[in-house]
Amino acid sequence: MTSDWRVSLAGAIRSPRELLKRLDLPDLLLPSAEKASAGFPLLVPESYLRRMRPGDPADPLLLQVLPVGQELDESPGFVKDAVDDQHAHAAPGLLRKYVGRVLMILTGTCAIHCRYCFRRHYPYDEEPRKLEDWAPAFKVIADDESIHEVLLSGGDPLLMSDRRLGELIERLESIPHVRRLRIHSRLPIVLPDRVTEELVQRLTTSRLIPIMVVHANHPQEIVDDCSEMLRKLVRSGITTLNQSVLLRGINDSVEALRELSERLIDLGVIPYYLHQLDRVQGAAHFEVDETRGRELVAELRNHLPGYAIPRFVREVAGAAHKLPLD
């Protein structure tokens, strides 16, 4: 029987025309949206759509997912592999950038297509698809006792079924020196019904310490079913962190960032990182000046307790850690 979250995903909006119609937005936005979506298709789940304001072309959630003509502009310094993933390969599907941890690219699919995605050009078709294809990656992890944490990423790792995810976790549990499992996922935000009882049960009964890193950029995202699912994760005992990207016209204000942190903290979710935009080709129109980012974080300190302020960081290719900017 198909689970609810799969039904939700199957019903997601994939057409710029349908998205504009559902939000009562003018057709004049359609030509550029269709042109930009040719290379990177539009994908928006119903749950996320319901949080948008109809008739508002500047809605902060809409701006994250609506294709625009600026994505096709050539911008100096913006490249396809903004964080140099290709030089971090330790095995097929396995990236190693930092001491003590590795990252597995489990899938190339997502439940939503964020237009600023730093992996929008990633060659996912070259990565493993079946569990047996991951044998070289598991060998790298097993042979290196310094690896204590494995990150599951993608695409979005929670688009794997509970069964397949469980098989992969079981394989990692068999490696004695692996202690922690970190899952980076946008699904608890955009497709909340993916947080099934089976998923929570599998994570909380694992010998590995589970850490969930979700991705919300604006307080308007943290409402209704999203709030309920975040609360469910936190109350299950899973450490839950949020990371955001600083985005022009979306969250580049003290008010938006303050309210986002407040809503997260009220649910027990820790504001973790505020990322300076990765300079991926097609996303230049989202970039906020780094100096402005520092000013925003400094101003947040006048409004929030220290534990509610995310660290302002940039990922630098080849660096041993995220570069603090604040």
Write the H/E string, N to C: HHHHHEEEHEHEHHEHEHEHEE
CATH architecture of the largest domain: Alpha-Beta Barrel
Q: Multimeric state of these chains?
A: single chain
Unreliable spans:
none
- How is the largest sheet built, in terms of strand order? 1-2-3-4-5-6-7-8-9-10
Mean pLDDT: 96
The main β sheet shows up as:
10 strands, mixed
Strand content: 15-25%
Shape descriptor reads globular
CATH homologous superfamily assignment of the largest domain: Aldolase class I
CATH topology of the largest domain: TIM Barrel
**What is the domain tally?**
2
End-to-end CA span: 49 Å
CATH class of the largest domain: Alpha Beta
Computed over alpha carbons, the radius of gyration is 19 Å
Structural class comes to alpha/beta
Give me the count of strands.
Answer: 10
Number of helices: 12
What's the helical proportion of residues?
25-40%
